[in-house]
Amino acid sequence: MRFMTADYRKVQVISMGSLFTSFNSGVSGLHAAQSGLNTTSHNLANVKTKGYTRQQNIQTDSYYQKVKVSVDGSLIKTGMGTNVSAIRQIRDAFLDKEYRLESGRQAFYEKLSETAGEVEDIFGETEGVEFRESLQALWNVMQEMANNPEDITKRQLFISTAGSFLETAQNVYNQLGTYQTSLNTEISDQVDKINEIGSKIAYYNQEIIKIEASGVENANDYRDARNQLMDELAGYVNFTYQEDEKGSVQVYIENALFVDGSLNYHLGCETMPETGFYKVRWLDNGYGDAFDMSEAYSNAKKTDVGSLRGVLNARGEKIADYSDMPKEPVKTDYVDAAGQFDETAYKVAMNEYQAEVKKYNNTTGNSIITQIQAQFDQLIHNVVTQINDAFAPNMDINGNKVDLANVTTATTEKGDAFDLTQLTKGKYKILDVQNCPVGTDDHETIGTEVFSRGQIDRYQKITLDAQIYTEDADGNPVGLAQKTTDAAGNEIYTLYLYNEEDTADIDWMYTLNSMVINKDLVADYSLLEVKANPAQGLEGAYAFGGNLFKNLLDSWDQEMGRLDPNSLASYTFDDYYTNMVGGLGVRGNGWNSMVDYQKSLTESVEDRRQQVAGVSSDEELVNMMMFQHAYNASSRYINTIDNMLQYLIERLG
Fold it and tell me: What is the pLDDT of residues 584-612, one digit of tens each?
């Protein structure tokens, strides 16, 4: 009987130990349920907080206590409860990256679309008048002057209209340049904002490392703030990132390190001296230029991401002009004096042309502003060239066919000696003194252009002591210099050598950047060549009446050239302008469609992202009920253990 009592007491002691262990399990369950309730309430409190990521408790077994070894050799263990190992964020890293890429691409095309709209506004209204009206007015006044060239008021009206046409064109061109310059401010503002975001990401990296270093808790709210900053950064630039084992992220912009832990590098704006435009460079990480702008933007290469790249692409790298449009080689230019076609030289020229087209597509043609500048300047250049060539027509000369046998001296307008061998080499242009019209002034002036280059005269006037000749198609001699007589009755021969345009120097180009109405014409309308050349036997006749300027009027309906080196179509002046503006609208509509597509895609990705990371009040309420039940169950469990212990203690007492 005594043995039974001792054994019974032993069982009671063991039972009490097991009950205390069970009591600990119940308490841990109570803590876990309480933590779950706290997390759920935190989620519900932030259901409308922008950038908040829903949180979730991760529960693990506390540890197991060995009880004994069973007859089959396996361990019998008792669980010691549960722990909340972490409160984690529920995010999908792949959806985050996809969202940031697509939202950045949306921002890029929004900037291109916005720029296209601004450019359309510039062309759509110039002080309330569309540019086409100015172009048409110039054509109309030329027709009026052709019908009545002897009327001085018509000539005055022509010069005035030509001046108005040039002023309107330059106003449009300058507005494009002004808008380009204004984009510098936007570039600078965006660079400052990117640097600010970088410094904040570095700050949150530092705070996250501090909080999570102990391994006790996650800095979830700081992580939310950092993720929101990276979402914002995606709107400006394309970037990649990775998180290290400490919880810090490294951020790379265009493969250059931007943020590394608590350290962030900075972008800056450097002024390009030749244009005054900004280019974006790294200031303190040694990478130099932040963006490679030598290639057209590409979806495949992800260079169509971020509003900063959008602004840089829209603005372009320079103020473009007609010289930026590649000029396709003409086969006839490669035919020598004997009529032989130099195929090798032509192929070399075509290869160079294809290289220029590729460069154009990657630079000038890649920017909506520089493309329209080049196209518009080409239109004005061709209009101006047609008018100037009508009033001061040139003839092409092959130096090999020039006869200088009678000439011994040649001087320039400044009185300097001129090297006559220049006239016997290569190809060049001179004023066609035999067929050009003349002015109505007493001297019957020739070679007066309507539109002048800013600093360079149309011709270099060379005074010779004798006539020089070339041959016509039939082998007959043709005099090249104008013959006049000085006050002493001496014969003077003047050669008008055309100053070819030099695209390396803006002063030598007929471009909107430097062109003016000929100041001599403005001062004296009689210099306008509307009379027939006396050499044609039409003394006193007017050139328009004799149809000498028929080519000028006809040229308006002839094809002036292609709008773009990638296009095969050639247009008249009016059609060129119509298609230029129409092409601008087509590009704008294309970008608008891209914006709509990207917006839809971004919203779709964001919806999927929110399904994972967003807080659902219904789901959280269900979780709250679950944790409440778990809490109540743990409480009842503890009460039961307490009652059992009380019973055992009373029996042992």
Answer: 889 999 999 999 999 999 999 999 998 88
End-to-end CA separation in angstroms for the chain:
19
User: Token pair for residue 212?
Assistant: 């999570």
What is the token pair recorded at 482?
């104008």
Mean pLDDT to the nearest integer, 562-585? 88
CA distance 434 to 622: 100
Spatial distance between the Cα atoms of 575 and 136, rounded to a whole number of angstroms: 12
Look at phi and psi of residue 240 and say left if phi exceeds 0, alpha if psi is from -120 to 50, else beta. beta
What number is the average pLDDT over the span 29-49? 79
Could you count the other beta carbons within 10 Å of the beta carbon of residue 119?
25
DSSP state of 36: H
Residue 281 burial (CB < 10 Å; 0-12/13-18/19+)?
middle
Rg (C-alpha) for the chain, rounded Å, is 42
Strand pairing partners for 279?
A: 270
Cβ neighbours, 10 Å, residue 563? 22
Name the residue among 100, 536, 145 with its Cα closest to residue 305.
100
pLDDT reported for residue 567: 86
Q: Compute how many other C-beta atoms are within 10 angstroms of the C-beta atom of residue 361.
A: 17
Q: How far apart are CA 205 and CA 425, in angstroms?
A: 72
User: How many whole angstroms separate alpha carbon 414 and alpha carbon 544?
Assistant: 35
Q: How is residue 201 written in tokens?
A: 């990401």
Statement: residue 164 has pLDDT above 80:
yes
For residue range 376-420, what is the model confidence (pLDDT) as tens digits?
Answer: 999 999 999 999 998 999 999 988 889 998 899 999 999 899 999
Q: Which of 620, 626, 615 is closest to 32 using CA atoms? A: 626
CA torsion angle 569 571 577 582 (round to 10): -30
| Most confident segment among 180-194, 323-337, 427-441, 460-474 | 180-194
The confidence score (pLDDT) of residue 52 equals 84
pTM for this model (two decimals): 0.84
Q: Report helix, strand and coil shares of the chain as percent, to nearest 5.
A: 50, 15, 30
pLDDT, tens digit (0-9, with 9 covering 90-100), for 450-490: 999 988 999 999 999 999 999 887 888 899 999 988 778 88
Q: Please state the φ and ψ torsions of residue 261, each to the nearest 5 degrees.
A: 65, -125
Say which range, 245-254, 263-272, 347-356, 529-538, has the weakest mean pLDDT.
Answer: 529-538
H or E element at residue 477: strand 477-479
What are the CA-CA distances from residue 114 to residues 176, 395, 650 (Å)?
Answer: 14, 47, 85
Q: Which residue is listed with tokens 């032989």? A: 340
Tokens standing for residue 125: 């209204």
Distance CA 258, CA 231 (A): 15
The top-scoring range by mean pLDDT among 8-12, 27-31, 311-315 is 311-315
Place of tokens 């103020």: 319
From 49, 37, 48, 52, select the one nearest 89 (Cα to Cα).
Answer: 52
Answer whether 207's CB lies under 8 Å from 247's CB: no
Rounded-to-integer distance, Cα 628 and Cα 618, Å: 15
Closest residue by Cα to residue 538 from 387, 389, 434, 388: 434
Q: What is the dihedral of CA 273, 276, 281, 284, to 10 degrees?
A: 70
Torsion of CA 209, 214, 218, 224, to 10 degrees: -20
